[in-house]
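Could you join me in thinking about how sequence relates to backbone shape in a protein? Would you write everything just below, so we can both look at the same thing?
***
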Amino acid sequence: MHFVGKTVWITGASSGIGAGLARAFAADGAHVILSGRNADALAAVAADCPGSRQLAFDTTDLAALPDIAAAAGPVDILVNNAGISQRSLALDTGFDVYRTVMEVDFFAPLRLTQLVLPAMVARGSGGIVNIASVAGKIGSPLRTGYCAAKHALVGWSDALRAEIAQYGVAVHVVCPGFVRTNVATNAVQGDGSTRGRSDADIEAGISPESAAATILSGIAAGTREILVGDGPEMGLVALRGSDPGRLFDTMAGFAPVVAR
């Protein structure tokens, strides 16, 4: 067991990959701090995580984050998992929607990392786990804001890793493909409303438990970029490096045809 006695703080822990990670870390002997906006949902996950703590808050309340981090106390591993997706064409997406997605998916994990990182550096150990996406590696139609935020998270994480490796602190970027969660159902549309329905691709994806097992194995092995999934979307990530022109044409083929 690789995480016995470690304190692991997970945002977005009330459902999906976050809940799967909470249960997996707890089963491996970690002391888990569960965070999210829904206190009742966190309590349900906590029932499966003996010795866990619950710390409900909204990650986008940046002004409150210093006090939240102080309440969490020292952590060995921070898992920035809270996020929101998008399902709307760029031509139909309001600017405020882009700001919301960037705040949730990029600035919130950046700020929380800033708050816990100094103690890790002083201690000479620790880990930052940023849950990005395959959408952080390729550009997917209907997800311009989501792709932008996840690309930003991947790039920032890679640069941060290069800076802080000298202090013994690891940075892991996790890029899941299709996982059976509520990510599509909870996605924002161009007017800021919630989509309210899932995607066939999401429903055909791997389980959150399977995703969590892959992520924990990757962290334990020191893998810096952890790809999670077994569907055709994972091949698109490889295509980005081997034949980007083909990837761009493939993704254009997935775009809805809309008369303007």
Observations:
- The first strand starts at residue 7 and ends at 10.
- The chain has a mean pLDDT of 97.
